[in-house]
Amino acid sequence: VIELGTPTRSVITTCAYCGVGCSFKAELNGDELVRMVPYKHGAANRGHSCVKGRFAWGYAQHADRILNPMIRDSIDQPWREVSWEEAIGFAAARLRGIQEKHGRKSVGVITSSRCTNEETYLVQKLARAVFRNNNTDTCARVCHSPTGYGLGQTFGTSAGTQNFDSVMHTDVAVIIGANPTDGHPVFASRLKKRLRQGAKLIVIDPRRIDLVKSTHVEAAHHLALRPGTNVAVVTAMAHVIVTEGLFDEDFIRSRCDWDEFEEYAEFVSDVRHSPEMTEMLTGVPADALRAAARLYATGGNGAIYYGLGVTEHSQGSTTVMAIANLAMLTGNIGREGVGVNPLRGQNNVQGSCDMGSFPHELPGYRHVKNADVRAIFEAAWGIEIDPEPGLRIPNMLDAAVDGQFKGLYCQGEDILQSDPDTKHVAAGLAAMECVIVHDLFLNETANYAHVFLPGSTFLEKDGTFTNAERRINRVRKVMAPRNGYADWEITQLLANAMGAGWHYTHPSQIMDEIAATTPGFAHVDYAMLEERGSVQWPCNDAAPEGSPIMHVDGFVRGKGRFIVTEYVATEERTGPRFPLLLTTGRILSQYNVGAQTRRTANTVWHTEDVLEIHPHDAEVRGITEGAWVKLASRSGETALRAHLTDRVSPGVVYTTFHHPGTQANVITTDYSDWATNCPEYKVTAVQVGLSNGP
Ligand code: SF4
């Protein structure tokens, strides 16, 4: 129960849950946070919020928080509380010792999409300037890395094209593999407002999400495809648009590479991509598919919004490119009301990718092989940068199992719980000589750690988050860090203990360095953010006011690039032993693995994940509402209660993954996106049967 006092002061800051990036007024009584009030001048939310941002901040005071650093010589020993000085010294000595023995590439870092831009920038800088390698990766690896690849290949940069307000000019909205009412509620409200004004909606999702039919809103088409067949459905829509002559030739001739378009048009025109052939593959009726394609192409401004139901597949990058093709084909890019928009899950997925977290890219999505780009950072940092890309998270773990990778600094991510193939992650961590976990709570990964560095919450630090519309929002310190240091200070302590000589005294200085080295941020500084509230990158000489909409006069890469997107079935197949397909998602009141939302003093939060199963599939298995069932895949098994619903089609089951007991990643496969290694969380062949419970 939260005791409410009378607020005596307030601080404007940004929600640390989802990629909408709502602004809040944190109201305090002295140093006690009393309530979070949605800020009416927040550009992303305009006074709106969801239940998480408004109420789920109690975890900052939760008794589970670790406030003192801890170390241990080996993971079979108990933790020992030590001073910050001893913990940082221990970590630095271990990492240096590993590098001396096993080489400079034997250690690496993982950045967090929950942390600020400034913190993320420093962690990748730690790898590049102090460890002297490019072994830096981010938790975006397991969510939106295909967005980075797919939009980079087609448009030239990894970012949504629109601001959220743009949806108020949309005539046809397409939602693919996303559930905005649960995942991005404040954006969903704005979309619903536009739908109530008469805009049309197409939903492409295996499950009947709320937007398909809710109060005053009904989708024109719900294409309930078989999980894993996104590419086939989107390509079939392109088939209809091309073969019926509904494409925007003027746009394509002026803005895209015409030769590549011709090759693409020939590819999609093939009869194997017709709605009739696609129906057999995807389960989507040909008539509905054809009608949806015609509506998107001819219904006015068409805007596509997508989520992890697009990216977390073995063809995640291919689907992102297929979506980009569709937008270019119809000229739905570069003005109000149109575009391609990834709905980012975590608060700072966009920012963590912008800040150079990936092992092949320096800040601003510039390849480490580019000597001119390296020279900018070499001049700023006073060191030489390795021109070879580093290791992705799965490669770090593989190398650890092989004895080549020995030390990891992991900030704000629980890879043991979040990443696929739990056994392999555990084996990789167990093989390392120094695992440093920097987090709020003793998470599952910490079971394999030698150093635990207590993290600070978003309420306890200054910085910026970048939301899904590229909007850089200020995060302001509401209270002193309970652990003693903000996260950026802890990274600096570690870097300096390894000889770095960094002297940042405020995150604004880190942002100044980002602006000096990263063209899209050239005009961004804290004084400007104070004055204007927020700004959308690119913000530089070419766009001093920022860029609400991208690719207005031309694509970042020059000509838009059509890419042939051949559908390749996932290697995960159903069969007699595992006849159903499992897909996963979120609910409104919980967040990811629930580390924060489960630690709020509020009894309305849901308390367990359930398995949605179609009544027909339940009946043949003797399963009734609320019964315990065993959910088994080729990888493992777990137990859940059943919920009978026709939200899922026969042959498909669905669950959320917010509770550790669900162990969703014991079930999922180790297949991943061909381009980025993003895990295929959304397609797992399973069997369901009655059980006695966990
Ligand atoms: Fe926070 Fe997202 Fe909810 Fe806004 S919509 S309050 S950013 S969780």
From TrEMBL:
Gene Ontology annotations of biological process type: formate metabolic process; respiratory electron transport chain
Keywords tagged on the record: 2Fe-2S, 4Fe-4S, Iron, Iron-sulfur, Metal-binding, Oxidoreductase, Repeat
Cellular component aspect of the GO annotation: membrane; oxidoreductase complex
MF GO annotations: 2 iron, 2 sulfur cluster binding; 4 iron, 4 sulfur cluster binding; formate dehydrogenase (NAD+) activity; metal ion binding; molybdopterin cofactor binding; NADH dehydrogenase activity
4Fe-4S Mo/W bis-MGD-type domain mapped to chain residues: 8-64
Entry keyword Glycoprotein: no
Domain of life where this protein originates: Bacteria
Family membership noted in the UniProt record: Belongs to the complex I 75 kDa subunit family.
Name assigned to this protein: Formate dehydrogenase subunit alpha
Stretch of the intact protein here: 249 to 942 of 964
